[in-house]
Amino acid sequence: MENESENLRSIPASADVADSASTAGVETGTTPATDALPTAGEALGTATPPIPDTGAVDTLANPYGIEALWAQGDLVIKSVAIMLFIMSIASWYVIATRGIQAMRLRRAARRAQLFWHAQSIEEGLNLIGGETATNPFRRLVDEGGRACDHHAAHREELHGQLSLADWLTACLRTAIDESAERMQSGLSVLASVGSVAPFVGLFGTVWGIYHALVGIGVSGNAGIDKVAGPVGEALIMTAFGLAVAIPAVLGYNALVRTNKGVLGQLNRFAHHLHAFLVTGAPVKVAKLHVANKTREAS
User: Fold this and answer.
1) pTM of the model
2) The 3-state secondary structure of the chain, one letter per residue
3) What's the pLDDT tens digit per position in 25-52?
């Protein structure tokens, strides 16, 4: 009995010792022995695989970009895109070439004013500069000189029965009309692109909406994943059509305005040239052409 009572008195003492040991471990900042044990993965020598970055995957596999539009688009969508691309190239080519020509014509119109300050027709042609094929003002002077020569040398023909003023008017008007045709060449392309391109893009829009409705009907739900792709195609085609049409319309208006100003100056120059040639200049022009032909023959 005495031994049992001594054993019971010793149990709380050992528990107190364990509590004090654990408390001392917490105060000293030491970790339990179980924390130092390796995990199963470390014991087997394998590392935990990293978690994939879902944002990077979504960025690389974007189903709504331009590339996805071309890859997922059908024959109609691709045909519309190619047609708009060809229209854009054609319009920009016309804008570039005719824009350069318009700048040269405006420069020639300013130089044409120097013609009336010359002492002779030959000196006036040198002041105008350029070539007959590209300079409409020089072409007018050459056509006027040839018309006077022809009228004087072919009086027995039918047109020789006309007066010099009428014959010269007809020749100068013909030269002006030919120059106007050259200046206006290519503008029909810009007019056609500017008027047709929005409707071509609209056709792509209608086709994209049709695909969206078909996708909704097949899937049975109106989820954003079924609608976003076709509707995105529709909106992109509309933007393409406007991007092709707007530069064509602006270029057309700018070129028409420039050509109108040059034609007005060309008509005034022809009026003064007609009055100059009718009042006695044909004889000098004829001599000038005869002298040029003599030099060319020699």
Assistant:
1) 0.65
2) CHHHHHHHHHHHHHHHHHHHHHHHHHHHCCCCHHHHCCCHHHHHCCCCCCCCCHHHHHHHCCCCCHHHHHHHCCHHHHHHHHHHHHHHHHHHHHHHHHHHHHHHHHHHHHHHHHHHHCCCHHHHHHHHCCCCCCCHHHHHHHHHHHHHHHHHHCCCCHHHHCCHHHHHHHHHHHHHHHHHHHHHCCHHHHHHHHHHHHHHHHHHHHHHHHHHHHHHHHHCCCCHHHHHHHHHHHHHHHHHHHHHHHHHHHHHHHHHHHHHHHHHHHHHHHHHHHHHHHCCHHHHHHHHHHHHHHHHHC
3) 444 444 444 444 455 444 445 445 555 4
Structure tokens at 18: 């364990």
- Answer left, alpha or beta for residue 10, where phi above 0 means left and psi between -120 and 50 means alpha: alpha
* pLDDT tens per residue across span 72-117: 667 887 888 899 999 999 999 999 999 999 999 988 888 888 888 8
Q: Is 188 exposed, middle or buried (0-12, 13-18, 19+ CB in 10 A)?
A: exposed
